[in-house]
Every structure is written in structure tokens, then in C-alpha cells.
């Protein structure tokens, strides 16, 4: 009765977009209840009794897989962090439009499925295959046009053939929860979440660049406010970290306080996390835990504070490709890929 | 299965502070599930089998009421808006410390109970009674001292004797939910929520000013950052309004959109709500609905927008005492009573 538990933070309901209360998550495997929900459209209506997955297009042997077929193929299970490309959008200055995600458009857990590569091999891709288009069952209107689109994204053929790009059918040991893509969801480790198409309807191999609006209009970095100059596609996750504890604007007493958080990257591994408790004048390397290929790492530091006052605490991660969080995030018009050094402020009294 | 519902927004768990997702509330009576939770300490342990309410102090006939006694006295039910004094604290500039409430540290519903006045009359207040101290069962340490305090607040005798100040035992027709004060909660209409003490343990009439930290340290407006000069107590709610729809930073199409929200005050009634869709250059009076003595009112406006672009939408309420929201809120060090004109920004594309 006296138990206090965190909830998803509601950003919108039509479509449903809700954020993981990341500061209050103690476990590194997020349950369905607290896994962030991100939708472009309302939830699809699927008829499971007639569910088949076509793999077609630029192939020699088009396939129609039943769920049983797919589940009988060799599988693998991976702990993968999924981060929405719009995570932390609300922190951009100048502010941008769209869902005002704070630090919680990110979750992770164990996805099990068959490598997409296996399905593509069974269909015998033809010479000249360039991309693999994955279409979801979710459809609807966009604000920028009256046309109806399904949510569809392509992957470059190399990423589609990567052995860890999965067509997943399990999450944390159970069927994938409906809101997260049941019965099948593409899982693309290291890429922002928009690539991990939910409710997979069809997989099509193409020999030219796919140009759906979810990769030619949305999920594009537009560095200019008023023109599309310099546009580049959103793909792998940037190196990033988030302070979970203390909370921003928390009031503390003098003494020892644990500062902790998470760090992750879409290239290689996190090799270093530094924190500063003096607004960036000095930095200390902190302890890393649970380092895993596709998951976030935990980090923590015991901060001894004797003097009352206001403190700005920063966290900065570095990955094995030498990428490091910068003070200034890469501003872009649609607000993707925010990875500025994380910052909170506390008062010690 | 496809239903999307809003949740409380978690601000902290120790103690539990969670915010009502006010933008997504359609009903004007908030259910327990979505009523904001605001605590100073962890939840108290109460033994209900031995629950008695003492009314003592500067009285001729100290009383010890059982719940049955209280429930057998003449009762009244009132729809009351309860707003945390820290509601909207996160909007202050410069920013202040403490729970970073956005627009949802506010809820309303129907509280039923016996007027506090009835209990005071049964105890026969003596001449010279100045204040009534209401103590809750919640106790704990504060960050500014090592002493243990219970949560206790006093009311001036006139407010305590107001016929609508209730010792409530029902919320929305059922027992008061535990997290909101079961079995008895003081309900002080028109005052910020800190006055509505939960889990009432004792009521004491005093003939001098009570000086507990929850009214001499906290719940005080300190207009200066570095001194206590000009400090005044936090009491009645300021005139206020919140835009619920559209959402801040929402992307809309051209056409007609409903702009709606709520407005409330701690003095008299809301008599006017104006909105501006051009950053405050022009104002339009909007339709008010559900005007009730102690509740918020709903307002709405059909906005026809033909031209693409960015729009700043403002809402401004006026009450029957001539109080009106100002552009600049009254900044104060602890961040109470924010009532600046509400403001969102949308993009029409």
C-alpha cells in the first residue's frame, strides 16, 4: 500500500508516446510496463490467425514465412539498448518542435529472434541488391501531406546482413508485447530506434535507394533552420550518457552522495565516463559496470561534499572509436541525436 | 489492448512526488490513479484499530473523536481544486531548487467531511484562540536540520472556523485513498495544498502563532535570492490558468484546432479567460464552463489557422477580485505560487 513506483511519462496519446522514467530505473532490463512507447500512428489491427511474413523483391526465391517457420530457425538473444532518435530533444537550444522527450526515450532488454540474414539467404538475394525495406503494419496520415503511409524504413544491405540484425519474436523471454511490435519486430543494434520497425508486415529487397518519408523527410539531420542544406540521414546512435542520480535541482545535505547514471554508444564500446562536480573545471573518471556489446553501461561515483552551495554536475562518455560527448550538441531542425554533455544542478544546504 | 492511457509523471520516489498528466485529463473529477501525490516524508504507519482524533489545546472541553463520531456529524461534500504551492515551479527563471513540477501538481475531486468548525465548537474554544494547528501522522528528517518533525500546519482561527474547511473522510464517494490522507484529511478550499494536512493525527487550538518549519521555513515567499527580507507566508492560491491543448511544441496542420485548458483562483471566482495566438498582441475572451465555487473552470476556443508558421499561444485568467495573471511571475527563492501567463508554442505546417 505504501509502495511508491515510477510510471511512464506521458508525452502524447494520439499516437501514444510515453517516456521511460529513466532516473528511477534500478534494473538494466526494462519491463514492458516501463519500456518507452513511441508511435507514428495509432496501433495497427493485426489478424494473427493469418499472419505470414513475405520476403520478396530483388530475390530469386520469394518467401512466405509462418511464425512457426521463423521460430524453428537458429536464433540468438541479445541485450540491446533502443534509443529514440528524438531522445533529449527538449534540451536543444534553440528549442525545436516535435515530441518533447527528456532523458527517457531509451530502454533496453533482451530481444530474441532469427538473424535477418538467415531469411535473406533463404530468399536468395540477387546481385545488385542495395537495401532491404522493412514495412510495419502501422499506417496513417502525416502532418505534412494528406497521403496515407505505412511506417517503412530501409537498411543498407551490409547492415541488413549483419549477423546481429534480428527479426525478433521474444522480449525478455516472453512474446514481444503488442505495443512493442508483436509478433515480429526488426531489431537493429547500434542504430537509433526508428530502424527497429515494429509489427513487421513485409521485407522487400530493392536494388535502388528507398525514399519513404520516414527516411527522406523525417530522421534526417537538417543543420539549418530554414533550408535543407547539409541534410544527412540519422543512423547509428551517438556516444551519450545520462545522469540518473541526483535529480536535477535536487536539494542535498552535506556528506557523501552517490552520483550515478548510464552511458551508451552506437559504435564500439563505452571506454570512459568522466564526471565533473565543478561545472567542467575538473573531471574524474568513474567506475563502469555491465559493459556489454549492445547495452548501456552503468556508472557511479561517490561524491563527498562538505561545503554548502550550488553545484553543476556533468557527465561525459567516450567510446572505443574515440567519439566523445561535446558541450554543445549538434543542433538540427528536427531535433535528433542530442548528445551534449549531460548536466544537472543541485543545491547543498 | 490498443488503449493508450496517461500515467502520473514521476518527480521523486523518496518521498513520493508524482504529477497529474493534466494535459491528458478529460474529466474534471480526478480518479485516485491520476491524482498528484505530494509528500514531505515517507508514508506513515497508522494503526486504524486504535484511531482516535484528539482536539485539544486552548479549549474548555478537549475531545477524542472516533471515526464513527465524526462520520455521524452533519457533513458536506465539496468539489475542491487542490494545487501544490510548487505547481509550475520548473517554469521560474532563474530556475529554483526543489521538485521540478510542471503543470500537473494540481487535481480536483469531491471531498466529503465534517466542517472543522463543528469539531471546534464541540471542544469549546476559549477566548484568545489565535490559530488551529493540524498535525499529520507523517514524520521525518528535513534537509536543513537533523531534528525529526511531523508535518504540521496552522490555520488562522477565522479560516479554521470557515464553514467549508473540512475534516474529510471521503473522496469521490469512497474512503480517502491512503496516499491522500486516509482516514482523515483536512481540506482547506482556496489555499494551496500544503494547508490540507493528510493523515490527521491531532488538532490543537493555540493562543499564539505556531512556528513549525512547514510555515516558517517552507511555504514562505522569499523574494530575494540571498536574504529572507520581505518574506510572506504562502496561503491562498493565486489566479491561474493552464493550456492543456495543443501541447507545447506540437506540430499541427492548417485548419481548425481546439485550444483548451483550465483556470482557477483562491479568491472568488474566475470571471474571464483570454487567449492570444499572436504572442500577446491581441487577446480574445473564451468560453467558460463548469464554473463552481472551489473548482477549476474549463475553457475552450476554436482556433482557425490558415497560415503556416510558428505561433505562441497564451492564456490569461482574471478572477472576481480583479486579480489577473501577469506576464512575469512573482519570482521567489523557493519557487511557490507561479502564476505567470501560460504559454505554449506550436508549429503549423
UniProtKB/TrEMBL annotation, chains A, B:
One of its GO terms (molecular function) is sulfite oxidase activity. Residues 40-212 form the Oxidoreductase molybdopterin-binding domain. The keyword Metal-binding applies. GO terms for biological process: sulfur compound metabolic process. Residues 234-348 form the Moybdenum cofactor oxidoreductase dimerisation domain. It comes from the Bacteria. This is Sulfite oxidase. It comes from Sutcliffiella cohnii.
Amino acid at each position: 500500500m505504501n509502495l511508491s513506483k515510477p510510471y511512464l511519462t506521458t508525452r502524447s496519446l494520439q499516437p501514444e508516446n510515453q517516456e521511460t522514467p529513466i532516473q528511477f530505473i534500478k534494473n538494466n532490463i526494462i519491463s514492458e510496463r516501463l519500456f518507452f512507447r513511441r508511435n507514428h500512428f495509432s496501433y495497427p489491427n493485426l489478424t494473427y490467425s493469418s499472419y505470414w511474413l513475405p520476403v520478396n523483391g530483388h530475390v530469386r526465391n520469394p518467401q512466405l514465412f509462418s511464425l512457426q517457420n521463423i521460430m524453428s530457425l537458429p536464433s540468438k538473444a541479445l541485450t540491446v539498448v533502443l534509443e529514440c532518435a528524438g531522445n533529449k530533444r527538449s534540451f536543444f537550444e534553440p528549442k525545436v518542435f516535435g515530441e518533447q522527450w527528456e532523458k527517457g526515450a531509451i530502454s533496453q532488454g533482451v530481444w530474441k529472434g532469427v538473424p535477418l540474414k538467415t531469411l535473406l539467404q533463404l530468399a536468395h538475394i540477387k546481385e545488385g541488391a542495395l537495401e532491404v525495406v522493412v514495412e510495419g503494419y502501422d499506417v496513417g496520415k502525416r502532418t505534412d501531406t494528406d497521403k496515407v503511409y505505412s511506417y517503412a524504413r530501409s537498411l543498407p544491405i551490409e547492415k541488413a546482413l549483419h549477423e546481429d540484425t534480428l527479426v525478433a519474436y521474444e522480449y525478455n523471454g516472453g512474446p514481444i508485447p503488442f505495443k512493442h511490435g508483436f509478433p515480429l519486430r526488426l531489431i537493429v543494434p547500434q542504430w537509433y530506434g526508428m530502424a527497429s520497425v515494429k509489427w513487421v508486415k513485409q521485407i522487400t529487397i530493392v536494388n535502388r535507394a528507398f525514399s519513404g518519408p520516414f527516411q527522406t523527410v523525417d530522421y534526417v539531420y537538417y543543420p539549418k533552420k530554414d533550408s535543407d542544406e547539409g541534410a544527412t540521414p540519422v543512423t547509428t546512435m551517438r556516444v551519450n550518457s545520462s545522469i540518473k542520480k541526483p535529480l536535477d535541482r535536487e536539494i542535498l545535505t552535506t556528506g557523501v552522495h552517490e552520483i550515478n547514471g548510464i552511458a551508451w554508444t552506437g559504435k564500439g564500446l563505452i571506454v570512459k565516463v568522466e564526471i565533473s562536480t565543478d561545472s567542467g573545471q575538473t573531471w574524474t573518471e568513474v567506475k563502469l559496470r555491465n559493459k556489454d556489446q549492445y547495452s548501456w553501461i552503468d556508472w557511479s561515483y561517490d561524491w563527498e561534499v562538505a561545503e554548502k552551495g550550488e553545484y553543476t554536475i556533468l557527465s561525459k562518455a567516450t567510446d572505443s572509436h574515440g567519439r566523445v560527448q561535446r558541450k554543445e550538441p549538434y543542433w538540427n531542425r528536427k531535433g535528433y541525436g542530442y548528445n551534449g554533455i549531460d548536466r544537472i544542478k543541485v543545491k547543498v544546504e
